Structure formats: structure tokens, C-alpha cells
């Protein structure tokens, strides 16, 4: 069974985010992130939610209820699809999806500006299916 620190390292690696960048994205101190990565401490619920949003993973991923960090289930069961998955479903580039969401052109998601030029994306699977007129799974 994976540890929280191992899952955090995996999510950071898959997103090509280092410790300093994660700190900047979340506002969580580098020393706290270092302790999470070493396994010395685990984040409280507020910090956990911040990490989940910044890394675009499921809270279930960190609670080891899923092995896939690619899409998330929020507490109401609404799926948050990754930009990559949305691009595949739309048949468009990831850049197209990001810019469309940032500009509010599409009705299936929104972007939150973090720090600098970084954004966190929230894409509703249900609204994405409605937009494309499809059903099924990604």
C-alpha cells in the first residue's frame, strides 16, 4: 500500500512540479511540503484540499481509494476531468482547452489563477458530455 508521501511524489512527478513550485502554487511553506514528502507529517484537511486543487488529483487518490490521479471525484460525486482528457474528448489540443476555459468561452469548466502564469483547471465531466452531446466514459 502506498504512503501519502509516495503518492504526493508521484503526483508531483507526473505533473513535472518540484517542491518550490508546489509551494508557490499552494501557499504552503516549503518546509511543510518537505515534511509531507519525507513522511514526517501529513497535511491537515485545508492543506490537503489545497494540494488536491493544485495537483488536479482526487482526494480519493491521496486516501488510497483510487490509483489514478487523472480525474477527481468531489464529495458530491461530480467528476473533475483533466485538461488532457477533455482535449481527447473534444478532439482539440490541450492548449485550446486551457485557453477556452481561462477565457470563459466554454460552459464545462473554469480556471483559477494560482501564482504567476499558472492555473488550476476544474472541468465537469457531466457538463463536458452535455457540451459534446456524448455519453460514456473517458
Short characterization:
The chain is 49% helix and 10% strand. It is mainly alpha-helical and 138 residues long.
Averaged pLDDT: 79
What is the CATH third-level topology name of the largest domain?
434 Repressor (Amino-terminal Domain)
Shape: elongated
The biggest sheet amounts to:
2 strands, antiparallel
Please give the domain count.
2
Widest sheet: strand order? Answer: 1-2
Runs in which pLDDT lies below 50 for 5 or more consecutive residues are 65-78
Number of strands: 4
Strand content: 5-15%
* SSE string: HHHHHEEHHEEH
| CATH second-level architecture of the largest domain | Orthogonal Bundle
Radius of gyration: 15 Å
Which class do the helix and strand fractions yield? mainly alpha
Number of helices: 8
Helix content: 40-55%
Distance between the termini: 26 Å
Q: Using the coordinates above, name the CATH class of the largest domain.
A: Mainly Alpha
CATH superfamily of the largest domain: lambda repressor-like DNA-binding domains
Amino acid at each position: 500500500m502506498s504512503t501519502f508521501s509516495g503518492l504526493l511524489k508521484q503526483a508531483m512527478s507526473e505533473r513535472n512540479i518540484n517542491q518550490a513550485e508546489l509551494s508557490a502554487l499552494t501557499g504552503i511553506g516549503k518546509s511543510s511540503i518537505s515534511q509531507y514528502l519525507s513522511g514526517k507529517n501529513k497535511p491537515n484537511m485545508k492543506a490537503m484540499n489545497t494540494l488536491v486543487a493544485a495537483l488536479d488529483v482526487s482526494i480519493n487518490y491521496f486516501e488510497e481509494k483510487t490509483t489514478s490521479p487523472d480525474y477527481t471525484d468531489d464529495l458530491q460525486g461530480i467528476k473533475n476531468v483533466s485538461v488532457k482528457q477533455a482535449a481527447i474528448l473534444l478532439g482539440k489540443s490541450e492548449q485550446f482547452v486551457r485557453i477556452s476555459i481561462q477565457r470563459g468561452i466554454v460552459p464545462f469548466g473554469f480556471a483559477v489563477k494560482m501564482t504567476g502564469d499558472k492555473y488550476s483547471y476544474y472541468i465537469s465531466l457531466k457538463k463536458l458530455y452535455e457540451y459534446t452531446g456524448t455519453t460514456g466514459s473517458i
